[in-house]
Amino acid sequence: MLSLHAGFSANRLLVWCESAQPQGAKPLADLLKSLGIHVDRQGFQTAPVWLPSGRKGPVPSNALIAEASETKNIRIARSTVETAALFTPAMLDLLCHCARKDLVAPGVIVGPDLAYWTAAMEFAGALVARQQFLPDLVRAYGATREYRAQWRAACTGRDDDRLHALVAAMPPAARAFAPEIPAARLLGGFLDSVVDCLIRGTAPYRSGSGTLHDRWLAALQSPFGLLTGTEAELEQLSRQLTDWRRPISVISSAPFRLCFRLEEPAFEGAGSWQVNYLLQARNDPSLLIPAGSVWQAKGAKSPVFRYPGFQPREHMLFSLGQAAAAHLRGPVTKLTPHVLRHACASRLYGEGIGLAAIQQLLGHRWLSTTVRYVHVADEAIEHAYQQAAERAAARFKE
Description:
The chain has 398 residues and is of the alpha+beta class. The protein folds into 4 domains: 2-88 and 97-110, no CATH class; 139-253, no CATH class; 257-315, no CATH class; 328-398, no CATH class. It has 13 helices and 13 strands. The strands form 3 sheets. The chain has a 7-stranded mixed beta sheet. A 3-stranded antiparallel beta sheet has the order 8-9-10. Strands 11-12-13 form a 3-stranded antiparallel beta sheet. Helix 2 crosses helix 3.
Protein backbone atom coordinates (compact mmCIF):
# COMPACT_ATOMS: atom_id res chain seq x y z
CA MET A 1 0.00 0.00 0.00
CA LEU A 2 1.28 3.44 -0.97
CA SER A 3 0.12 6.95 -0.15
CA LEU A 4 0.73 9.65 -2.73
CA HIS A 5 1.63 13.09 -1.34
CA ALA A 6 2.42 16.47 -2.89
CA GLY A 7 3.68 19.90 -1.91
CA PHE A 8 4.05 23.10 -3.92
CA SER A 9 7.40 24.85 -3.98
CA ALA A 10 9.28 27.04 -6.48
CA ASN A 11 6.48 26.86 -9.07
CA ARG A 12 6.57 23.05 -9.07
CA LEU A 13 4.48 20.29 -7.53
CA LEU A 14 6.81 17.95 -5.66
CA VAL A 15 5.20 14.50 -5.58
CA TRP A 16 6.37 11.64 -3.38
CA CYS A 17 5.22 8.20 -2.27
CA GLU A 18 4.91 7.07 1.34
CA SER A 19 5.28 3.36 2.08
CA ALA A 20 5.95 1.13 5.06
CA GLN A 21 9.56 0.63 3.91
CA PRO A 22 11.69 3.04 1.81
CA GLN A 23 11.64 1.90 -1.83
CA GLY A 24 13.41 4.74 -3.61
CA ALA A 25 11.98 6.50 -6.65
CA LYS A 26 10.94 3.39 -8.62
CA PRO A 27 7.34 3.04 -7.28
CA LEU A 28 6.73 6.73 -7.97
CA ALA A 29 8.23 6.55 -11.45
CA ASP A 30 6.13 3.46 -12.30
CA LEU A 31 2.95 5.12 -11.02
CA LEU A 32 3.47 8.31 -13.01
CA LYS A 33 4.27 6.29 -16.13
CA SER A 34 1.06 4.28 -15.71
CA LEU A 35 -0.88 7.56 -15.57
CA GLY A 36 0.73 8.79 -18.78
CA ILE A 37 2.80 11.50 -17.04
CA HIS A 38 6.34 11.77 -18.37
CA VAL A 39 9.11 12.90 -16.03
CA ASP A 40 12.70 12.86 -17.25
CA ARG A 41 15.54 11.58 -15.15
CA GLN A 42 16.51 15.05 -13.91
CA GLY A 43 12.98 15.49 -12.59
CA PHE A 44 13.54 12.88 -9.86
CA GLN A 45 15.51 14.15 -6.89
CA THR A 46 15.97 13.77 -3.18
CA ALA A 47 14.39 16.73 -1.39
CA PRO A 48 14.25 17.84 2.26
CA VAL A 49 10.81 17.68 3.85
CA TRP A 50 9.47 18.51 7.32
CA LEU A 51 7.22 15.77 8.73
CA PRO A 52 5.78 14.68 12.11
CA SER A 53 8.48 12.40 13.46
CA GLY A 54 9.42 10.32 16.46
CA ARG A 55 12.74 8.91 17.54
CA LYS A 56 12.67 6.30 14.76
CA GLY A 57 11.74 8.66 11.96
CA PRO A 58 8.57 10.02 10.29
CA VAL A 59 5.24 8.83 11.68
CA PRO A 60 2.94 7.06 9.15
CA SER A 61 0.19 9.37 7.90
CA ASN A 62 -2.32 6.54 7.49
CA ALA A 63 -2.89 3.33 9.41
CA LEU A 64 -3.20 1.52 6.06
CA ILE A 65 0.45 2.31 5.42
CA ALA A 66 1.76 1.13 8.77
CA GLU A 67 0.86 1.23 12.44
CA ALA A 68 2.40 4.11 14.35
CA SER A 69 5.07 2.69 16.64
CA GLU A 70 5.28 5.96 18.60
CA THR A 71 2.51 8.18 19.89
CA LYS A 72 4.42 10.39 22.33
CA ASN A 73 7.07 13.04 21.84
CA ILE A 74 6.05 13.63 18.25
CA ARG A 75 7.68 16.69 16.69
CA ILE A 76 8.14 18.26 13.27
CA ALA A 77 11.57 17.21 12.05
CA ARG A 78 13.55 17.41 8.82
CA SER A 79 13.67 14.30 6.69
CA THR A 80 14.34 13.45 3.04
CA VAL A 81 12.14 11.82 0.41
CA GLU A 82 12.44 10.86 -3.25
CA THR A 83 10.35 13.30 -5.28
CA ALA A 84 9.24 13.96 -8.83
CA ALA A 85 9.13 17.65 -9.78
CA LEU A 86 6.11 18.40 -11.98
CA PHE A 87 5.77 21.75 -13.71
CA THR A 88 2.36 23.14 -14.56
CA PRO A 89 1.21 21.02 -17.57
CA ALA A 90 2.27 17.73 -15.97
CA MET A 91 1.07 18.96 -12.58
CA LEU A 92 -2.42 19.53 -13.97
CA ASP A 93 -2.46 16.06 -15.54
CA LEU A 94 -1.72 14.42 -12.20
CA LEU A 95 -4.22 16.56 -10.27
CA CYS A 96 -6.95 15.76 -12.79
CA HIS A 97 -6.22 12.05 -12.33
CA CYS A 98 -6.54 12.44 -8.53
CA ALA A 99 -9.49 14.85 -8.34
CA ARG A 100 -12.23 13.65 -5.96
CA LYS A 101 -10.73 10.16 -5.67
CA ASP A 102 -9.60 8.12 -2.68
CA LEU A 103 -7.43 5.85 -4.82
CA VAL A 104 -5.51 7.05 -7.87
CA ALA A 105 -4.52 3.47 -8.74
CA PRO A 106 -4.97 0.06 -7.10
CA GLY A 107 -3.15 0.17 -3.77
CA VAL A 108 -2.28 3.90 -4.05
CA ILE A 109 -4.09 6.27 -1.65
CA VAL A 110 -4.53 9.96 -2.46
CA GLY A 111 -3.02 11.75 0.55
CA PRO A 112 -4.86 14.69 2.17
CA ASP A 113 -2.22 17.15 0.94
CA LEU A 114 -2.60 15.96 -2.66
CA ALA A 115 -6.41 16.08 -2.31
CA TYR A 116 -6.06 19.68 -1.13
CA TRP A 117 -4.13 20.70 -4.25
CA THR A 118 -6.79 19.07 -6.46
CA ALA A 119 -9.43 21.24 -4.74
CA ALA A 120 -7.24 24.31 -5.28
CA MET A 121 -6.89 23.37 -8.96
CA GLU A 122 -10.69 23.18 -9.32
CA PHE A 123 -10.98 26.63 -7.76
CA ALA A 124 -8.41 28.01 -10.22
CA GLY A 125 -10.35 26.47 -13.10
CA ALA A 126 -13.55 28.11 -11.86
CA LEU A 127 -11.78 31.49 -11.75
CA VAL A 128 -10.68 31.09 -15.36
CA ALA A 129 -14.20 30.06 -16.43
CA ARG A 130 -15.59 33.24 -14.82
CA GLN A 131 -12.74 35.34 -16.27
CA GLN A 132 -11.49 36.29 -12.82
CA PHE A 133 -7.88 36.99 -13.76
CA LEU A 134 -5.61 39.91 -14.60
CA PRO A 135 -2.29 40.29 -16.47
CA ASP A 136 0.92 41.14 -14.66
CA LEU A 137 4.69 41.35 -15.07
CA VAL A 138 6.85 39.53 -12.50
CA ARG A 139 10.47 38.59 -12.13
CA ALA A 140 11.19 35.16 -13.57
CA TYR A 141 11.75 32.65 -10.76
CA GLY A 142 15.40 32.37 -9.83
CA ALA A 143 16.40 35.20 -12.16
CA THR A 144 17.63 38.66 -11.28
CA ARG A 145 17.22 40.49 -14.60
CA GLU A 146 14.56 38.52 -16.46
CA TYR A 147 10.85 39.34 -16.32
CA ARG A 148 7.89 37.20 -17.27
CA ALA A 149 4.44 38.29 -18.44
CA GLN A 150 1.98 36.28 -16.36
CA TRP A 151 -1.75 35.86 -15.86
CA ARG A 152 -2.75 35.97 -12.18
CA ALA A 153 -5.88 35.03 -10.28
CA ALA A 154 -8.12 37.93 -9.23
CA CYS A 155 -10.39 36.98 -6.33
CA THR A 156 -13.19 39.35 -5.38
CA GLY A 157 -16.53 38.98 -3.61
CA ARG A 158 -17.47 35.37 -2.96
CA ASP A 159 -14.31 34.14 -4.68
CA ASP A 160 -12.31 36.10 -2.12
CA ASP A 161 -14.23 34.40 0.70
CA ARG A 162 -13.56 31.01 -0.85
CA LEU A 163 -9.87 31.87 -1.23
CA HIS A 164 -9.56 32.65 2.48
CA ALA A 165 -11.45 29.45 3.32
CA LEU A 166 -8.95 27.47 1.22
CA VAL A 167 -6.05 29.15 3.00
CA ALA A 168 -7.53 28.20 6.39
CA ALA A 169 -8.13 24.61 5.21
CA MET A 170 -4.56 24.01 3.98
CA PRO A 171 -3.20 20.90 5.75
CA PRO A 172 0.28 21.28 7.25
CA ALA A 173 1.57 18.50 4.99
CA ALA A 174 0.85 20.68 1.95
CA ARG A 175 3.59 23.03 3.20
CA ALA A 176 6.04 20.27 4.11
CA PHE A 177 8.55 21.39 1.46
CA ALA A 178 8.28 25.10 2.26
CA PRO A 179 7.16 25.57 5.90
CA GLU A 180 8.68 29.06 5.97
CA ILE A 181 6.22 30.34 3.34
CA PRO A 182 2.82 31.51 4.68
CA ALA A 183 -0.16 29.47 3.52
CA ALA A 184 -1.79 32.44 1.75
CA ARG A 185 1.34 33.18 -0.28
CA LEU A 186 1.87 29.53 -1.16
CA LEU A 187 -1.71 29.07 -2.33
CA GLY A 188 -1.57 32.34 -4.27
CA GLY A 189 1.50 31.16 -6.15
CA PHE A 190 -0.18 27.86 -6.98
CA LEU A 191 -3.36 29.56 -8.24
CA ASP A 192 -1.34 31.98 -10.38
CA SER A 193 0.59 29.08 -11.94
CA VAL A 194 -2.57 27.14 -12.80
CA VAL A 195 -4.46 30.19 -14.08
CA ASP A 196 -1.50 31.24 -16.24
CA CYS A 197 -1.17 27.76 -17.73
CA LEU A 198 -4.88 27.44 -18.53
CA ILE A 199 -5.11 30.85 -20.23
CA ARG A 200 -1.77 30.68 -22.03
CA GLY A 201 -2.68 27.28 -23.46
CA THR A 202 -5.79 28.67 -25.18
CA ALA A 203 -4.66 32.15 -26.29
CA PRO A 204 -3.43 32.39 -29.93
CA TYR A 205 0.25 33.32 -30.05
CA ARG A 206 1.32 36.39 -31.97
CA SER A 207 4.88 37.60 -32.06
CA GLY A 208 5.25 41.13 -30.76
CA SER A 209 7.45 44.05 -31.70
CA GLY A 210 7.48 47.77 -31.19
CA THR A 211 6.95 49.31 -27.76
CA LEU A 212 7.55 47.52 -24.49
CA HIS A 213 3.80 47.48 -23.87
CA ASP A 214 3.18 45.73 -27.23
CA ARG A 215 5.87 43.16 -26.50
CA TRP A 216 4.36 42.57 -23.04
CA LEU A 217 0.94 41.88 -24.61
CA ALA A 218 2.55 39.43 -27.01
CA ALA A 219 4.47 37.76 -24.15
CA LEU A 220 1.15 37.08 -22.38
CA GLN A 221 0.30 34.78 -25.29
CA SER A 222 3.73 33.25 -25.84
CA PRO A 223 4.57 29.77 -24.50
CA PHE A 224 7.01 31.01 -21.83
CA GLY A 225 6.15 34.68 -21.40
CA LEU A 226 9.71 35.97 -21.11
CA LEU A 227 10.06 39.69 -21.82
CA THR A 228 13.29 41.43 -22.72
CA GLY A 229 14.17 45.07 -22.18
CA THR A 230 16.23 47.32 -20.00
CA GLU A 231 16.03 46.86 -16.24
CA ALA A 232 14.61 50.36 -15.75
CA GLU A 233 11.85 49.90 -18.36
CA LEU A 234 10.77 46.52 -17.04
CA GLU A 235 10.77 47.72 -13.44
CA GLN A 236 8.68 50.76 -14.35
CA LEU A 237 6.09 48.66 -16.21
CA SER A 238 5.94 46.22 -13.30
CA ARG A 239 5.24 49.07 -10.86
CA GLN A 240 2.54 50.49 -13.13
CA LEU A 241 0.79 47.12 -13.30
CA THR A 242 1.05 46.73 -9.51
CA ASP A 243 -0.62 50.12 -9.03
CA TRP A 244 -3.30 49.15 -11.55
CA ARG A 245 -4.06 45.97 -9.61
CA ARG A 246 -4.01 47.72 -6.24
CA PRO A 247 -7.80 48.07 -5.68
CA ILE A 248 -8.26 44.31 -5.94
CA SER A 249 -5.09 43.56 -3.96
CA VAL A 250 -6.23 45.78 -1.07
CA ILE A 251 -9.57 43.97 -0.80
CA SER A 252 -8.24 40.45 -1.28
CA SER A 253 -5.27 40.63 1.12
CA ALA A 254 -7.12 42.39 3.94
CA PRO A 255 -7.71 40.46 7.19
CA PHE A 256 -11.07 42.28 7.55
CA ARG A 257 -14.04 42.80 5.25
CA LEU A 258 -16.68 45.50 5.19
CA CYS A 259 -20.23 44.44 6.06
CA PHE A 260 -23.42 46.10 7.25
CA ARG A 261 -26.10 45.21 9.76
CA LEU A 262 -29.71 46.41 9.61
CA GLU A 263 -30.93 47.09 13.16
CA GLU A 264 -34.54 47.70 14.13
CA PRO A 265 -35.57 50.14 16.88
CA ALA A 266 -35.42 48.90 20.45
CA PHE A 267 -39.22 49.12 20.63
CA GLU A 268 -42.04 50.32 18.40
CA GLY A 269 -42.06 54.08 18.01
CA ALA A 270 -38.53 54.47 19.38
CA GLY A 271 -37.13 55.69 16.08
CA SER A 272 -36.17 54.55 12.61
CA TRP A 273 -34.22 51.51 11.48
CA GLN A 274 -30.44 51.93 11.37
CA VAL A 275 -27.87 50.61 8.89
CA ASN A 276 -24.56 50.14 10.71
CA TYR A 277 -21.33 49.56 8.79
CA LEU A 278 -18.79 47.24 10.40
CA LEU A 279 -15.42 45.64 9.78
CA GLN A 280 -15.61 41.87 10.26
CA ALA A 281 -12.51 39.80 10.96
CA ARG A 282 -12.05 36.99 8.44
CA ASN A 283 -10.52 34.59 10.94
CA ASP A 284 -13.18 35.36 13.57
CA PRO A 285 -16.56 36.42 12.11
CA SER A 286 -17.85 37.21 15.61
CA LEU A 287 -15.40 40.13 15.82
CA LEU A 288 -17.30 43.18 14.49
CA ILE A 289 -15.78 46.67 14.74
CA PRO A 290 -17.98 49.74 14.02
CA ALA A 291 -16.73 51.62 10.97
CA GLY A 292 -17.11 54.94 12.79
CA SER A 293 -14.59 53.96 15.47
CA VAL A 294 -12.11 52.97 12.76
CA TRP A 295 -12.45 56.25 10.92
CA GLN A 296 -12.25 58.42 14.05
CA ALA A 297 -9.26 56.60 15.55
CA LYS A 298 -6.12 58.71 15.95
CA GLY A 299 -2.52 57.95 16.71
CA ALA A 300 -1.12 54.42 16.73
CA LYS A 301 -3.11 51.53 15.31
CA SER A 302 -5.23 49.44 17.59
CA PRO A 303 -3.65 46.02 18.27
CA VAL A 304 -6.61 44.48 16.42
CA PHE A 305 -5.45 46.11 13.16
CA ARG A 306 -1.73 45.44 13.47
CA TYR A 307 -1.35 43.27 10.41
CA PRO A 308 1.59 43.79 8.03
CA GLY A 309 0.60 46.27 5.32
CA PHE A 310 -3.04 46.58 6.43
CA GLN A 311 -4.48 50.11 6.41
CA PRO A 312 -8.04 50.09 7.89
CA ARG A 313 -9.13 53.44 6.44
CA GLU A 314 -7.81 52.68 2.97
CA HIS A 315 -9.54 49.28 3.08
CA MET A 316 -12.86 50.90 4.05
CA LEU A 317 -12.68 53.41 1.20
CA PHE A 318 -11.87 50.74 -1.37
CA SER A 319 -14.66 48.49 -0.05
CA LEU A 320 -17.24 51.29 -0.07
CA GLY A 321 -16.21 52.29 -3.58
CA GLN A 322 -16.50 48.69 -4.78
CA ALA A 323 -19.94 48.34 -3.17
CA ALA A 324 -21.08 51.63 -4.72
CA ALA A 325 -20.00 50.55 -8.20
CA ALA A 326 -21.77 47.23 -7.83
CA HIS A 327 -25.05 48.29 -6.22
CA LEU A 328 -25.79 52.01 -6.74
CA ARG A 329 -28.03 52.50 -9.73
CA GLY A 330 -29.75 55.19 -11.75
CA PRO A 331 -28.96 58.78 -10.75
CA VAL A 332 -27.30 57.60 -7.53
CA THR A 333 -23.56 57.76 -8.28
CA LYS A 334 -21.85 59.29 -5.22
CA LEU A 335 -21.46 57.55 -1.88
CA THR A 336 -22.56 59.59 1.16
CA PRO A 337 -24.76 58.56 4.13
CA HIS A 338 -27.75 60.51 2.75
CA VAL A 339 -27.28 59.10 -0.76
CA LEU A 340 -27.19 55.60 0.71
CA ARG A 341 -30.73 56.13 2.00
CA HIS A 342 -31.83 57.14 -1.50
CA ALA A 343 -30.04 54.11 -2.97
CA CYS A 344 -31.63 51.80 -0.39
CA ALA A 345 -35.12 53.12 -1.11
CA SER A 346 -34.62 52.90 -4.89
CA ARG A 347 -33.20 49.37 -4.70
CA LEU A 348 -36.03 48.12 -2.48
CA TYR A 349 -38.67 49.67 -4.73
CA GLY A 350 -37.00 48.16 -7.80
CA GLU A 351 -37.15 44.73 -6.14
CA GLY A 352 -40.91 45.04 -5.62
CA ILE A 353 -41.16 46.33 -2.03
CA GLY A 354 -44.18 48.59 -1.55
CA LEU A 355 -43.89 52.31 -0.76
CA ALA A 356 -45.63 51.89 2.62
CA ALA A 357 -43.03 49.35 3.77
CA ILE A 358 -40.18 51.59 2.56
CA GLN A 359 -41.75 54.55 4.38
CA GLN A 360 -41.72 52.63 7.64
CA LEU A 361 -38.16 51.39 7.08
CA LEU A 362 -36.83 54.90 6.45
CA GLY A 363 -38.83 56.37 9.33
CA HIS A 364 -40.69 58.95 7.23
CA ARG A 365 -43.82 60.58 8.59
CA TRP A 366 -45.32 61.36 5.17
CA LEU A 367 -45.51 59.06 2.17
CA SER A 368 -44.72 62.02 -0.10
CA THR A 369 -41.25 62.20 1.51
CA THR A 370 -40.61 58.56 0.67
CA VAL A 371 -41.65 59.16 -2.94
CA ARG A 372 -38.89 61.77 -3.27
CA TYR A 373 -36.34 59.18 -2.10
CA VAL A 374 -37.31 56.63 -4.75
CA HIS A 375 -35.51 56.98 -8.10
CA VAL A 376 -36.99 54.72 -10.75
CA ALA A 377 -34.49 53.34 -13.24
CA ASP A 378 -35.18 53.71 -16.96
CA GLU A 379 -35.47 49.96 -17.45
CA ALA A 380 -38.09 49.82 -14.68
CA ILE A 381 -40.23 52.39 -16.54
CA GLU A 382 -39.93 50.40 -19.76
CA HIS A 383 -40.82 47.20 -17.92
CA ALA A 384 -43.88 48.80 -16.31
CA TYR A 385 -45.02 50.18 -19.69
CA GLN A 386 -44.62 46.75 -21.29
CA GLN A 387 -46.62 45.09 -18.52
CA ALA A 388 -49.40 47.68 -18.89
CA ALA A 389 -49.49 47.11 -22.64
CA GLU A 390 -49.74 43.35 -22.13
CA ARG A 391 -52.61 43.78 -19.67
CA ALA A 392 -54.46 46.04 -22.15
CA ALA A 393 -53.95 43.53 -24.94
CA ALA A 394 -55.28 40.75 -22.74
CA ARG A 395 -58.46 42.70 -22.05
CA PHE A 396 -59.13 43.20 -25.78
CA LYS A 397 -58.78 39.46 -26.32
CA GLU A 398 -61.44 38.81 -23.71
